[in-house]
Design goal:
Chain C: InterPro entries: ABC_perm_TupB-like, MetI-like, MetI-like_sf. The complex is a heterotrimer of chains A (236), B (267) and C (234). Chain A has helices spanning 44-52, 69-73, 89-99, 104-117, 133-145, 163-178, 190-196, 214-219, 224-231; strands at residues 4-15, 18-29, 33-37, 59-64, 75-78, 151-155, 182-186, 199-204, 207-213. Chain A is α/β, with parallel strands linked by helices. Chain A starts with a strand and ends in a 5-residue tail after the last helix. Chain B has 2 domains: 3-100 and 212-262, Periplasmic binding protein-like II (D-Maltodextrin-Binding Protein, domain 2, 3-Layer(aba) Sandwich); 103-210, Periplasmic binding protein-like II (D-Maltodextrin-Binding Protein, domain 2, 3-Layer(aba) Sandwich). Chain B has helices at 2-15, 30-35, 37-49, 60-69, 80-88, 121-131, 143-155, 171-181, 189-194, 230-240, 243-251, and strands at 23-29, 52-58, 74-77, 96-108, 135-137, 164-166, 184-188, 201-205, 212-219, 253-254, 257-258, 261-262. In chain B, the strands form 2 sheets. In chain B, strands 1, 2, 3, 4, 5, 6, 7, 8, 9 and 12 form a 10-stranded mixed beta sheet that branches. Chain B starts with a helix and ends in a 5-residue tail after the last strand. In chain B, 46% of the residues are buried. Chain C has one domain (2-226): MetI-like fold, CATH 1.10.3720.10. Chain C has 234 residues and is an all-alpha fold. Classes of the chains: A alpha/beta (236), B alpha/beta (267), C mainly alpha (234). Chains A and C meet through β5 and α3 of A and α5 and α6 of C. The structure holds adenosine-5'-diphosphate and magnesium ion. Magnesium ion binds at residues 44-45, 80, 155 of chain A.
Chain lengths: 236, 267, 234
């Protein structure tokens, strides 16, 4: 049974006197994988951040469903550019647990296990800053997963990854989705969207152009922009 | 861990400053401290009375101010008018003359103003003013400075002009300035004898009784400042006027020269 | 030139023979300025961090005030502390004037703005890096400050050392509130002032060299300690 998670009502974000996203009205359900798609600058990152509560909404409203309180309380966000802490890889992943009062020893133990799950196979005592681009992304994913969030946002999580790492991450996402974790993510990888999405939110120029189930979207996109985007054309 | 250890060490170091029982504080003038007499007297005082006298070496004005505020237990200065005014304000119990030393004039070794030939101190100053020879003044309202101003007054001269340089600092700084400019200046004998940066300067005039410099000891008034250690101050006074003090003060020499003359009257 | 060479030679001799007076005033210098640096850091580092992560109306004012306080002449601070702790002043009953404690207090006032200001700069950069993550993780205010202070500890050590450096070389304030009392409140800088006044330039220079050596030694020691503590680059 699928219930509503949140509703956006004419949400608009303006920065520096310019509308960068909106007005957008849409509803999101409390299960599955929602994929934000669209060309660069379409507003995917801004939308995800607004949903997570990181961006101030200029007008309109974001309303959470009462039944989605559990999701609202346990969110995590994987940023497009991984945020590096000036700590070891292990302590970076353990950090959210330390905030929750978990002892250093236990937090490190669980962090090591979590690094293993995301396929981060490096010396965990080394500095986070010495990781490669892809390793940084896995480290950030591990840091997001360690608190076992009910709602996980990922902003282009495999942008810097090679094919094998991308596959590993997709497997993890498929796995946690099966475990009941709600996922809201963005990607510019059409193949990834096909493999993971239950629902697609297609943005263009800050506006919602199309919201459809994955099957419907990839079969027969309703808008010219989405059609052209899937064809690999440059969307103007 | 290392951070914590360090912090603990630093903190304990700061607060481990223990107070000692028989300490008393006395403000004295720079010229007295510079004479080196204190280095001779203080250990003897400690041996004879058990009092550890802590000296605050400052200008006369500040020395009296410290006493007036109750920040020291006694003062030892040499500026009679200021001392009497200080007593009149109720800052001290009484004034006890202990000893005197003298002031001298120093100047360039070729003595361009011919100060050495003067009969009296006032003539020496007149010669300097007439020649417009560079003269460095303390200019800091210290006892030495006040003495210098009294002498100019007695000579009937209001010193001003390029040649008259008031440095507004202590004896050491004034001596350093005079040495650098090769100028005349008035100094207490002790500061001059101890001064190591003489350059081309030499002693050019001495001996006029008007240049004698009386030191007086004054305990801080315990009625005004109840915490002041008046009993220690009185013990110290009794020692300062004793035969033992007389022997040490009269016997003290610097570079073979006697500096101080004991003249306390014993009741 | 000759003075400098003589000063160096005399400094070497004093150090090699572990001259008792030198050891005493050097230890007191360390005690006072390290103590002030520790207390100044305990106040200044969190204050700098707090200023970096908070937006409030008077923030610019507070930062401007900090920068102004940084330029405060130590003599003025010394006078202020003197008036406060004089027997005739509001805190006179404590009897702290002319004690090392009063010297520590004066130096804390002098160096805290410096420590806070340098810390503010460093933490502001770190906060820009960490902002989204710490907001996303719903950190509390004190968790943010603790995280930024811990992860910025290398830069913050520089802030503390800047404070220490200013303290150990400071003479105006401690001369007034300490009184330069032999065997009680005499430190390297006040001893240097004293020797200069006596025209004993080579002795003054010798003490100056000891002061420089001491500052370098403290810096190196702290850097070495913090390096061995954790084999990391941060
Ligand atoms: N803080 C901001 N101020 C001004 N413009 C912004 C700001 N953040 C994003 N933008 C602009 O908003 C648009 C959408 O950006 P973004 O959400 O990052 O797009 P996407 O993630 O889809 O590539 C872009 O044109 C971007 O330049
Ligand atoms: Mg983006």
């Amino acid at each position: 049974m699928v219930n509503p998670m949140m509703v956006l009502d004419k949400v608009e974000l303006r920065r520096g006197g310019r509308v960068i996203v909106g007005p957008i009205s849409l509803g999101l359900r409390d299960a599955g994988v929602t994929m934000a798609m669209g060309p660069n600058g379409a507003g995917k990152t801004t939308l995800l951040r607004a949903l997570h509560g990181l961006e101030r909404v200029s007008s309109g409203q974001i309303r959470w469903a009462e039944s989605a309180e559990a999701l609202r309380a346990r969110q995590a966000f994987v940023f497009q550019t991984p945020i590096l802490m000036r700590r070891s890889v292990l302590d970076s992943i353990a950090y959210p647990l330390r905030l929750k009062g978990v002892s250093r020893g236990e937090a490190r133990e669980r962090a090591a296990a979590c690094a293993e799950t995301v396929g981060l196979r490096v010396r965990l005592k080394k500095d986070a800053s010495t990781l490669s681009g892809g390793e940084k992304q896995k480290m950030a994913l591990a840091r997001a997963l360690i608190t076992e969030p009910a709602l996980l946002f990922l902003d282009e999580p495999s942008a810097n990854l090679d094919g094998r790492s991308t596959r590993e991450i997709e497997e993890i996402l498929t796995h946690i989705r099966a475990g009941g974790t709600r996922i809201v993510m963005s990607t510019h990888d059409i193949g990834q969207a096909r493999r993971l999405a239950d629902e697609v939110v297609f943005l263009h120029d800050g506006r919602l152009v199309e919201q459809a189930s994955s099957a419907a979207f990839f079969d027969a996109p309703q808008s010219n922009q989405a059609y052209a985007y899937l064809q690999g054309d440059i969307v103007i | 861990m290392t951070f914590k250890t360090l912090l603990a060490a630093a903190l304990s170091a700061v607060f481990a400053v223990a107070a000692q029982a028989q300490d008393m504080k006395m403000s004295v003038t720079t010229s007295f401290a510079n004479s080196g007499l204190a280095d001779v007297l203080l250990p003897e005082i400690k041996k004879d009375t058990g009092i550890n006298v802590q000296l605050l070496i400052v200008g006369t004005g500040q020395a009296l101010k410290l006493g007036a505020q109750g920040d020291v237990d006694a003062v030892l200065v040499h500026a009679k008018a200021a001392e009497l005014a200080w007593l009149a304000e109720g800052n001290g119990t009484h004034r006890r003359e202990i000893m005197y030393n003298d002031f001298i004039f120093v100047g360039p070794s070729d003595d361009p103003a011919g100060v050495a030939k003067a009969d009296r101190a006032t003539d020496a100053l007149s010669a300097i003013a007439e020649a417009k020879a560079p003269f460095v003044s303390r200019g800091d309202n210290s006892g030495t400075h006040k003495m210098e101003l009294r002498l100019w007054d007695a000579a009937g001269i209001a010193p001003q002009g390029d040649w008259y340089r008031a440095v507004g600092q202590g004896m050491g700084a004034a001596l350093n300035t005079a040495s650098g400019m090769n100028a005349y200046l008035m100094s207490d004998r002790a500061s001059w004898l101890k001064f190591a940066n003489k350059g081309d300067l030499k002693l050019v005039y001495e001996g006029d009784p008007i240049l004698f410099n009386q030191y007086a000891y004054m305990p801080v008034n315990p009625t005004k400042h109840p915490h002041a250690k008046n009993d220690l101050a009185n013990t110290l006074e009794a020692w300062l006027v004793s035969d033992r003090a007389k022997e040490l003060i009269d016997g003290y020499t610097l570079n073979g020269e006697k500096l101080f003359t004991f003249n306390a009257t014993v009741d | 030139m000759n003075d400098i060479l003589q000063g160096l030679a005399r400094a070497a001799k004093l150090v090699v023979t572990l001259n008792a007076d030198l050891v005493e005033i050097t230890l007191l210098s360390l005690q006072v300025s390290l103590g002030a640096a520790v207390i100044g850091s305990a106040i200044g580092l969190p204050l700098g961090a707090w200023l970096a992560i908070n937006r409030f109306p008077a923030r610019r004012m507070v930062i401007a005030l900090l920068n102004a306080l940084m330029g405060l002449p130590p003599v003025v601070v010394g006078l202020f502390v003197y008036v406060l702790f004089s027997r005739s002043g509001p805190l006179g009953v404590l009897g702290l004037l002319f004690t090392p404690t009063a010297m520590v207090i004066a130096q804390v006032i002098i160096i805290t703005p410096i420590i806070a200001s340098v810390a503010h700069q460093a933490i502001r950069e770190l906060w820009a890096d960490y902002h989204d993550l710490l907001i996303s993780l719903e950190t509390t205010h004190s968790q943010r400050i603790a995280t930024l202070l811990w992860d910025g500890r290398r830069a913050l050590m520089t802030a503390s050392l800047a404070g220490f450096g200013r303290g150990i070389g400071e003479v105006g304030a401690i001369m007034i509130v300490g009184g330069n009392i032999d065997h009680a409140t005499r430190v390297l800088t006040t001893a240097i002032a004293l020797e200069t006044g006596k025209g004993e330039f080579d002795m003054a220079l010798a003490l100056g060299f000891v002061l420089i050596g001491l500052a370098i030694a403290v810096n190196l020691t702290l850097h070495m300690l913090s390096r061995t503590e954790r084999g990391s680059r941060w």
